[in-house]
Amino acid sequence: MKFKTYISKDSKLKEAIAALGWSNNEDIYSCSEDQQVYKWSSSNREMVQVAKLPDGFVSTDLHWLVGKGSGIGTPGASAAGGSKGGESLLIAGADGRFVILNKSARIERNVSAHTGPIVAARWSPDGAGLLTAGEDGIIKIWSRSGMLRSTVVQNEGQIRCARWSPSATAIVYCQGPFVAIKPLAANSKLTKWRAHDGLVLCLSWSNNTSMIGTGGEDCRYKIWDTLGTNIYTSVADDYAITSMDFCPDGELLAIGGFNMLKLCHYTGWSHSIVRFNQQVTGSLFNIVWSADSTQIASSTSTGSLLFGHIIERELRNRNLKAITSGRKTIQLQDIVARTSDTLDFSERIIKWELGYGHLVVATVHQVHIFNEHYINTPIIIDGRSDIRIIMLGKKHFILVDYNSIWIYTYTGRLHLNPRFPGSQAQIPHLNGRCVSLGMDSLAVRDHSDQTIVHVFDLLPGATRQEEPHTIHSKAPVIEVAVCRYGNPDDQYLVFIDANQDLYITSVHSGPEYVMHKIGTQVTATMWSSDTNILVGLHDLSYSVWYCPGEACGDPTLIALTTFTYDTSEFGKNITLENFEGANITFRSSGAIFTVSVKTYCVILHKLFAENQWERALKLCRLAQNHLLWATLAAMASKRNQLEISEEAFSASLQIDKVNYLNYIKSLPLSSPEHMAENSIMNGRIQEAEIILMHNKRIPEAVRFCLRMHRWNKALEVALKHSVDVELVLEERRKYLQALEREENDPQFLALDEPVCVQCAATHKHTHTHTATKERTEDGAYAPRDAHHMEGGEHFSEFDHEAILGSVKEAEEFDNLSPEESKKRLALLVLKMDQNSDGYVDRHELKAWILRSFKSLAEEEASERFEDVDLNNDESVTLDEYLQETYGMDSEDEEGVRLPFEEPRNEEERKLIQDDKEMFEAADTNRDGKLDSTEFVQFISPEEFPQMLPIILQQTLRDKDTNKDGRIDFQEFVGDNAKDHDKEWLVVEMDKFKEDFDKNNDGFLSGNEILSWVVPSNDEVASDEVDHLFAASDDDHDDRLSHQEIIDKYDIFVGSEATDYGDHLQNIHHFDDEL
To answer: Which SMART domains match (predicted)?
Structure first.
């Protein structure tokens, strides 16, 4: 790779060009001491005058800020917006002034900034402001309109050069032999170090790699990281280094000196060097790259303008080799077939990639797709300009410009235009390390929050094409890579965070991604193109993970399947170039080193992808290698090949896993327990719990949580289903005794409070006859199971009433003998079994419970109706209701109420108003009184849809304090917030957002308010069905036989002799009697 250079023809300039910059990929603007601004064309290298500067204004620096899509090579260009007003030219002068010109060459601002010349003026990468640095030792930050914001640096010495950091959060500048980084955050420490033996003459900060390059009078250039650590130091040149610049994509570095131009890798080593011996150019100043990273321009001390573009860039992929021989020409060779083709393009080539049998070339306005078998008939995509990134995959390739990401198939069809929150502003900041294309997935690291990675599914019809899942890392993500091979179930994603730790997760395990740490001090990583083998680069070594996905959940397997090799023989500053098939390519100081991974492992991965387990087993038996056996063990365990896993683990000396596999094999095949234990074997703990809970294996789920020491989850499951609570508490006590620690968990402390055993043993059924409808503290109607669990204790009265549909009948059953209770329950079971198949399934039991709820409501209303109907005329008037409810008890004669006249206080007035509205709504025939049917609606309005508008109206009147027709969180908690701590508010906020605010707009309105104040009988019935099944379904067939129900009669209908209310939550309190 090298520069092909041209020098401007017959320049009319007599003085050296003081400053220049690219306005787009074709035009260059320059200015010199004659107060003129010129525009140069990179195609014909001719210039025209476009503006005149104020008299006496001698320019020293120039920088363009151009709207997105205009081809400028700085991230700030895209952030500046696409409006014409966003295209601005900043020019600094030797008299301490700077001017801002618009694209029409009109001066918009003329600002006096420094005492003495301004040596550097630069727009910030986000386009929000600019910096100026002067020989007076001061660096200032200005707004985009030229208003002073702050003075960040004040020194006595002269500043030579200054540049923004890529994120616009710091400024680097050079002063004498020193280089310093000044963070803009308050109270941040200045980082300063001695960079060169003489003056530092130039510097540049890379956009993508965050490396800093410096050149000095000591005739050397150096590369540094942001901590001031030296990465590379060049040999001394003949003359001082006068100019340098990293290209926008961060991969290349241009160095200029006296009659010398050098093209370097970003780590410092040189690709090529050009010396101008025949045509003297003098020292090169102000080297600048075009936005597409393919061209440079530089001013010279002789007054000429130097142009250059990159040629002889070479890529290899399997049997193909491609090299650029000119601005519009690529030579493509097939090494195996010994053929060569010359590909000519009508426009300048700006990006191209080779891989998977295809060559994709982006020109200024087109994208050409070449298939290695049909070189003469490329597919052309029109309208794609300013392409910054091309990335090839097995099925698709991606194009990234300044506006969006485009995913195409190799037939030229647009497959997907992925977007995520804030993507429009973040696209210009993307680079090759934060975007990765896999077999069926695309991963993009978020720029605004670098701890987030967005994962798109590329499978046809996948929902994640439009709504990606997100992976959250604890530290900022530096690099992301998706595997390029495998079945859809075997796709993995790895990322390197800011701590250089390597994590892996399954691509299709979202949205709750489980991440496993598999490496440390990793600087770069790459997947093989043909297998799921991963390579990672360290400072002085590299590691190969032969089975990272399947073995990630087991540290022992990861250790057995990971090999680390020394790279000291390769040299320093090694970069990872490619991983094609079984060959890994490294580059160090320009030299290419190729190493191979173990071939048998590559073959084993391919057999695994094809499910050829017998051949895989034969291969391992032939090789007798611990690495192969461990890899096979991990793969076979994931695919439930237990026999093969057992042999592989045995051969790799993992005896504990062999014993565990034998236990799994002893379980019934395809049973929930078998599947759960296999998930545990593969490290999928959450999946095992879900399997047990979904299949109603509640006791097993509790014991599983105990095995995993998930104490709170075990207690939660046990309490919810009233199963093994005593076991959880006992195991918790043993655990704490072994650690010699005291209990400090509030949930367990609440259950350890002593309870009177005698009182618990003599507990009697007490069924409540409801006189008035209960309300919760916040005004919502109490659900029917409000008293099912109280104080951590289970009360079975609700179970009995839910089955019998009557409080009176439940009381009657309490006094029956066990034989009579079973006899009567058998009759009820026949009615529950609607399809008469001998079983009561969940749907039948739920329907029966809902019918019971309706009967209970009618029974409650009937009892109340008799009390309120004072004149016994089979109807209730509003006056009768108010008299019975609000009339005062007589002090003279017990049982007699004085006539009700007026409300005694404001609260009573409000209650009466609500009752009047509800009474009128229930009076459907408008006769001014309620019969027994209408009275049910009045007493239990939450049970009837036609009454819900009144409930909504009254709730808004009571809670909506700002009268905006909706409930915010402050109105949701109301005055209760004053009596509770912050923790209570956090819980209520979570309830507000997760349970009720369905549209996530921060308010409750309409049905959302009703979901808050009106309990759902359907949900209560479902919970009761789960509870009864957990307690009665002994054979776990997810249905109840008639005999199972009758055997558990005490659960369903109760008895004095066998009380189901024997305090399952507190069964350990009976230990003394036992």
So the answer is: EFh, WD40
